[in-house]
Design brief:
By secondary structure, this protein is of the alpha+beta class. It is built from 3 helices and 7 strands. A hairpin with a 2-residue loop joins strand 3 and strand 4. Helix 2 crosses helix 3.
Length: 156
């Protein structure tokens, strides 16, 4: 899918999706940076209204379905950072998604969790939302977040 008439914002409106405000960095970094025709986001946590939706380890105190919903929020926060930096309508395609899942011992469903972000991006961007991806289990994430997602996008 190429950007629809009215751009990606029109597609978001059609889907009933509103981008959140850009999440404030929790350390010494910027939310997104451009180099050439690419934009890289910093790792986005599942912040809603300035706070984490939940904390904990996936496969422990957080179930995989809740973590997938958090990955979706992370992706929206990434899109908000991109929109703030260059404008969402400049996005040609999603190139890569990297998802980190704070995993309880023995949890191996990281791909299913990061599908929350991947499926949202495909829903918004269609074929331009199909991307390369890594889903990585980690011991801890910043502030106790269960999920963190990074996006790389190509610009027009």
């Amino acid at each position: 899918m190429t950007a629809p008439a009215g751009g990606w914002h029109a597609r978001l409106a059609e889907l009933g999706i509103r981008l959140p405000p850009v999440a404030a960095p929790v350390a010494a970094y910027v939310p997104a940076i451009r180099t050439g025709s690419l934009v890289f986001t910093s790792g986005q946590l599942p912040f809603v209204d300035g706070g984490l939706r939940r904390t904990g380890k996936v496969g422990g105190s957080v179930d995989a379905e809740a973590a997938a919903a958090d990955a979706k929020v992370c992706a929206l926060n990434g899109l908000a950072a991109i929109d703030d930096l260059v404008g969402l309508d400049e996005v040609a395609r999603i190139v890569r998604v990297v998802g980190y899942v704070a995993s309880a011992e023995g949890f191996t469903g990281q791909p299913r969790v990061i599908n929350g972000a991947s499926e949202l991006l495909a829903k918004i961007f269609g074929e331009a939302g199909r991307h390369a991806r890594s889903a990585v289990g980690v011991a801890e994430l910043p502030l106790g977040a269960p999920v963190e997602v990074e996006l790389t996008v190509e610009l027009r």
